[in-house]
Amino acid sequence: MTAAASFATWRRQIHLWIDHGAGDDLIATMLHRGLVALICANVVAIVLESVPSIAARFSVGFQAFEFVSLLIFALEYAIRLWAAPEHARYRGLSPARARLAYAASVPAVIDLLATLPLLFGLMGFGELKVLLLLRLLRFFKLGRYSPGMASLSAALAAERKALFACFVILMGVMLMAASAMHIVEHEAQAEKFGTIPDAMWWAIITLTTVGYGDVYPVTAAGKAVAAVTAVLGLIMLALPVGIVATAFAQEIHRREFVVTWSMIARVPLFGGLDAAEIAEVMQFLRAQTVRNGAVVMHEGEPGRALYFIASGEVEILLPEGKKRLDEGHFFGELRFGDMAIASHSPCPNAAVATAPSKLLVLDPVDFHALTKRHPKLAERIRALAQA
Amino acid sequence: MTAAASFATWRRQIHLWIDHGAGDDLIATMLHRGLVALICANVVAIVLESVPSIAARFSVGFQAFEFVSLLIFALEYAIRLWAAPEHARYRGLSPARARLAYAASVPAVIDLLATLPLLFGLMGFGELKVLLLLRLLRFFKLGRYSPGMASLSAALAAERKALFACFVILMGVMLMAASAMHIVEHEAQAEKFGTIPDAMWWAIITLTTVGYGDVYPVTAAGKAVAAVTAVLGLIMLALPVGIVATAFAQEIHRREFVVTWSMIARVPLFGGLDAAEIAEVMQFLRAQTVRNGAVVMHEGEPGRALYFIASGEVEILLPEGKKRLDEGHFFGELRFGDMAIASHSPCPNAAVATAPSKLLVLDPVDFHALTKRHPKLAERIRALAQA
Amino acid sequence: MTAAASFATWRRQIHLWIDHGAGDDLIATMLHRGLVALICANVVAIVLESVPSIAARFSVGFQAFEFVSLLIFALEYAIRLWAAPEHARYRGLSPARARLAYAASVPAVIDLLATLPLLFGLMGFGELKVLLLLRLLRFFKLGRYSPGMASLSAALAAERKALFACFVILMGVMLMAASAMHIVEHEAQAEKFGTIPDAMWWAIITLTTVGYGDVYPVTAAGKAVAAVTAVLGLIMLALPVGIVATAFAQEIHRREFVVTWSMIARVPLFGGLDAAEIAEVMQFLRAQTVRNGAVVMHEGEPGRALYFIASGEVEILLPEGKKRLDEGHFFGELRFGDMAIASHSPCPNAAVATAPSKLLVLDPVDFHALTKRHPKLAERIRALAQA
Amino acid sequence: MTAAASFATWRRQIHLWIDHGAGDDLIATMLHRGLVALICANVVAIVLESVPSIAARFSVGFQAFEFVSLLIFALEYAIRLWAAPEHARYRGLSPARARLAYAASVPAVIDLLATLPLLFGLMGFGELKVLLLLRLLRFFKLGRYSPGMASLSAALAAERKALFACFVILMGVMLMAASAMHIVEHEAQAEKFGTIPDAMWWAIITLTTVGYGDVYPVTAAGKAVAAVTAVLGLIMLALPVGIVATAFAQEIHRREFVVTWSMIARVPLFGGLDAAEIAEVMQFLRAQTVRNGAVVMHEGEPGRALYFIASGEVEILLPEGKKRLDEGHFFGELRFGDMAIASHSPCPNAAVATAPSKLLVLDPVDFHALTKRHPKLAERIRALAQA
């Protein structure tokens, strides 16, 4: 192996450690847990440091901890940047371009901003209050480790135009409410509604239904305006909720479709099918939700069905011992005529859900219907099974 | 019958009494109503006992009631644990394993926690204020008796990752809002925004749109930060709503599909069909919503259609008297050519909805279309009808 | 005509006047508008009467108006009860049973309660404050005239179990929050959190995100409990919203399907098709949304397409003048081969939307695809067209 | 060219400049940006002018700016009115009728109202406070430039009946809550709940969950009423949210369908297909979401697939240089047997997403399935490709 190959191998290994912490690798898991813990400890430290009595007592400790953390975060940023060409997303680009593309991505920008206080500190501006915000930005580094965050941000990004329209409407309604209130109340409460900017403060707090109660109308006309504003606030609330709910529902459906598809394509027998044929198979899957502890396959019931785990975890009993399977795996055996499709050889003896799980089941009866309706597909599966 | 068989029969009987209270059995119904009443009485007693004047007056009564309740709840827990192997969910496990699995389920843990004060009381720690929380946990024992609770918790469990991501986002936004407010307001209101933890109290109350009004900004910059925070609060509100709405909608669809399927499979004539054929029949059902008191079948109109009750209650008139049918049952008669599918023999004479009901109707015209499009299915139904 | 027949005819006429106000009948329209105006005037009067200065000044007027209104409402109730056997919903029942069934319906109970103050007044209890609530119940008489109310109440009724489960969860969370707050704050603020009922007031106002600010925690532990409670409040808000949104979406889909179906069945040519064939036609309709003022059909473009109005209003130009069509009507002409399906004879020359409208369009190209895929349907339509 | 033709050409050119600012035309883009900037500057000026100290200092400047702005807006309104006959929406109407129809549209009415202060000012009523509202109405002129606004208003318009029913329910609940509160609290707090109008103020602020805290109950009965009202407030909130969410979801689905349809119809090869055939092609598209910077097509992979951009932006590499494509365009090459469908000639060498994008992909494998299942469609595409 040449030096360049060895170098690329190392870069690949480090990329896997630092970016695929959810797998089985012990180093990757430790690394990720360590970074998550460090981020949380940082945020707690920043919050506590703002309390004068605590800050005075542990002043040296806080500074040391901040300095060490900053060094680790800077190192993390450098390593991630260096390993960026290994990302599947940037494959095919030159290393320099891949790093540039990575540096422009949202998580990388957050990482960079989170290390900036180090630079400011070295430049002697470490006492600026505004640095607090940059330091707290570290919290969002957690986003990388949350599997649900990707769905949420994809949903929000998909409907950014509609959300912006909502914001424009909110601004417009706020302006109208504020000026109406200014007109009717500026004589009764000159210090609170004397100018439109003053009234805007009241309007935004009312439209968002926060309602602190530091400013409220006292005249009958003012109360009427406030009542209308409060009811409009309900609509202002309904618009983003409706948009986010819709976008999120679509995102979930897309995600589920992709998960199901890739599960089926992973079954060795179905792997040889083309996209249209996999879609046919998908339509014959039956959804089944099982609770934690539910027995999915009893001992001594061979050839019952094929089970695909859409979410959750199932423990199967194999001759060589127990094995836990999670999202994306399948198990069971499907006997049909002279064909048998099994997940393992020999087939597992029993299966128990070890978490609330959603399974997709392919029953012999459905498989029968599938092959009856698509004889060519059946022949093809038969041929693949005998191969 | 041997002693072991008799024992198993008893256990089965007690399981049916204690776990299937919605059926027709009088003992089971009484038992369930009694337990629900006891839980409610307990919660009321705990709340009243916290009022010093009432507690002083009925002190002995409260103590006696608490003691008796605890004994009953402990007994209930023991019986449920003993009867656990009869649960359909744990069938196929050994009795000991079934009990262990049951003891680890959420309702059993709530039951156990609800009886803990008895133990603490016996150990002499009965005066601890924290016991209040354990005692109030009894309220959640009601969850077992609410049919909608299962749907809700299934929906929440399905999207727990996304809800956790929401929570992480809420924490992040809260931290940023709090530190921004701390920076701009700590001079104007040192006692309220002097430290970040103080500002966090303001931030969380604003982001959740509660807005007590005990803390609010007074400077222009502070008001600008608060306005942005309040608007972000709308998004913080929209995210969980969107997620829960989506998850709940999916849960409902799944539930309805299962209910419909099992209703059709219960029709004697369709029971012999395979899964794919039942799915064909399902597509030809027409939904109909009727109000309380609506006449579904008039007297002297035989062979009109088959009605499946998806929800609600219908009273049918049979020669031997009236009979009430609820969710999951079917009635009516479908005459088609030389075939007749009837729910009862002879067919009911009339039917009136006794609650707002949702019916799925199989009309002769739809049945005709079904048999025309699937001649093999028609032949099969014909064969089954003549058998 | 015999007296009984004449009587039944009168009852039918009065039923049509009083229950079908949305039609073309002038008397029915006047009657309905008059009743809506009377209800609104009543509510305004009741609200104004509660202001002592106004009540003192117009005392006699208010009493007279109330008395006249009560007489009219009592008369309305009596007439509706008498005409109940004409309701399509109660057809097939004896008059006495139909009236009993009607009297037990929600609108009738509201009508009855709204007239009760008359009875109480005659009995000398007219001064009771509680009568205010009975009098204001009149407002809900408006529900009868709002077309959207039926959809809303159907949606709420469909998910009443889930909403009840929400309420149980809300109660449980409220109890836990209240007792937790009572434990941590009862020493700091004995007058506000000294008993659990006191703390419950705080808990419910926080969980619903109202947050008056009359009660709020002051200790650090109390603020932590309040923060958790406020976040739980977001979930408490998300649950009913998710349920109502889902239920309402289903209700809308059901309603739209029924509207579309009945529109197609009303086209003379399609009226002879059976249910399955109408469903085939439905799949070939293309949705089109037009703005107010949009030109749907230009002059001199015959045989363009058939347009069904799903919602909104369209003005068509016929040789005899202009005509406005609304929801449920269709217009246009579809020429295909030797067939021509026209809404009017001769076909309208032009069409302009006079409100934002949703149209379902059957194009010649789609009709071609329909007949190619279902040759039997095409033959049948051809036969019907030539008949 | 005659004078009339030249005139019509000018009108068309001005219509394109003033109404199609999103295109490539430099003048149109400048015009639109200028108008948006002017509107924003106007709103800021109006808000600032309400602050006495600022108004006094820059009095002349504000008046001059207002006057110039009004002139520009009046000119804009006149030009738009004059160019109205060029609108696609009013094609086929006479110029006078087109202008009348345009003048009655919502954006035109807003434009007119925004110019009214000019008229009032000329008539000497320029000092009226109410003019503030008319002047702030300018803000809504921005609606014309926001692409998401159309979706939102279409969604709201579609469910206006249900939203009105919500409003009626809100009014009814508010009336009942206010009178119940008036009954139980008017003795304890005569100045706050002494009359129903006073109590209505409390009721609306509680039901919308604003909760200022200026009025709240102090008696136990009053607190019970307030608790029920607050919980009802959650439902009042859930109703509009559910309605808006449903309406918006439907609007999005409709929009996406239309976008996809028109994209496929724009592929030269598919343009010759009829509606039913395009629908067939649509079913074989596979959705793919790519991040900013993702490489969609690598260099040297010809004939991979056809990509349709549903949203976002993609940069393709052509022999003549780079080119950015956005929503509605397609790129790539599909080789299948002896056929090749390409977006450009020669086919682009590489493609990189320059924004988070949603692509619809037509793979050779899916295209194969499509042609196998619809041999006539395949023949037709083959014929079109060779033409």
List the helices and strands and how they pair.
Four copies of one chain form a homotetramer.
Chain A: H1 3-19, H2 26-49, H3 52-57, H4 59-83, H5 95-103, H6 106-122, H7 131-136, H8 147-158, H9 160-185, H10 190-193, H11 196-207, H12 220-266, H13 268-271, H14 275-283, E1 286-290, E2 295-297, E3 306-311, E4 313-318, E5 321-326, E6 330-336, E7 339-342, E8 350-353, E9 357-362, H15 364-373, H16 375-386
Antiparallel strand pairs in A: 1-9, 2-8, 3-6, 3-9, 4-5, 4-8, 6-7
Helix pairs in contact in A: 1-2, 1-4, 2-4, 4-6, 8-12, 9-11, 9-12, 12-14, 15-16
Descriptive notes:
4 copies of one chain form a homotetramer. By secondary structure, chain A is an alpha+beta fold. The first copy, chain A, folds into 3 domains: about 5-145, Voltage-gated potassium channels. Chain C (Four Helix Bundle (Hemerythrin (Met), subunit A), Up-down Bundle); about 155-255, Helix Hairpins (Orthogonal Bundle), CATH 1.10.287.70; about 270-385, Sandwich (Jelly Rolls). Helices cover about 60% and strands about 10% of the residues of chain A. The first copy, chain A, is built from 16 helices and 9 strands. Chain A has helices at about 5-20, 25-50, 50-55, 60-85, 95-105, 105-120, 130-135, 145-160, 160-185, 190-195, 195-205, 220-265, 270, 275-285, 365-375, 375-385, and strands at about 285-290, 295, 305-310, 315-320, 320-325, 330-335, 340, 350-355, 355-360. Chain A has a 5-stranded antiparallel β-sheet with strand order 1-9-3-6-7. Chain A has a 4-stranded antiparallel β-sheet with strand order 2-8-4-5, with no helix packed on it. In chain A, a hairpin with a 2-residue loop joins strand 4 and strand 5 (about 320-325). The longest helix of chain A is centred in the middle third of the chain and has 47 residues, at about 220-265. The radius of gyration of chain A is 29 Å and the shape is extended. Chains A, B, C, D: It is found in: Membrane. Chains A, B, C, D: Its main location: membrane. Chains A, B, C, D: This is Voltage-gated potassium channel.
